[in-house]
Write a structure and sequence with these properties.
CATH topology: Cytochrome Bc1 Complex, Chain D, domain 2
Number of helices: 5
Shape: globular
Strand content: under 5%
Bound molecules: protoporphyrin IX containing FE
Radius of gyration: 13 Å
Order of helices and strands: HHHHH
Number of strands: 0
Largest sheet: none
Structural class: mainly alpha
Number of domains: 1
CATH class: Mainly Alpha
Distance between the termini: 21 Å
Length: 106
Amino acid sequence: QAQDAAAGEKVFVKCKVCHVAEEDKNKVGPSLHGVIGRTAGTHPDFKYSEAMVAAGKSGVKWDEPTLTKYLHDPKAMVKGTKMTFPGLKTDEDVANVIAYLKQFSN
Ligand code: HEM
């Protein structure tokens, strides 16, 4: 699956209502700056659902495979997540938005 960060920036318009990636700023959702490699539910200043904290404690770390699963169907992967977003429909959109997020992670 080829990744296209520029296309991913367009996909990210759907996420922007609730998330920022360019900087470490929380909105309705936690900042996604540096999210790649972060353990789920661990931004220090964000109040997560118990489900997201539990996911992190059980070992979920955000990388390509886990983000791919979550972004296709958030509630299926983290039952009880308070992210009210139905998920992205296509593999292409998911891969591209991850490529976009990678630009803001080490
Ligand atoms: C959590 C990505 C759309 C609200 C998260 C997390 C990721 C993510 C990776 C987990 C972060 C962490 O563990 O620190 C995305 C992407 C989106 C998107 C890539 C677009 C494709 C949205 C939208 C909303 C939203 C539109 C608001 C309607 C939230 C909230 C959480 C969250 C409230 C915390 C969930 C919890 O504590 O259970 N998002 N998100 N997200 N997101 Fe999103």
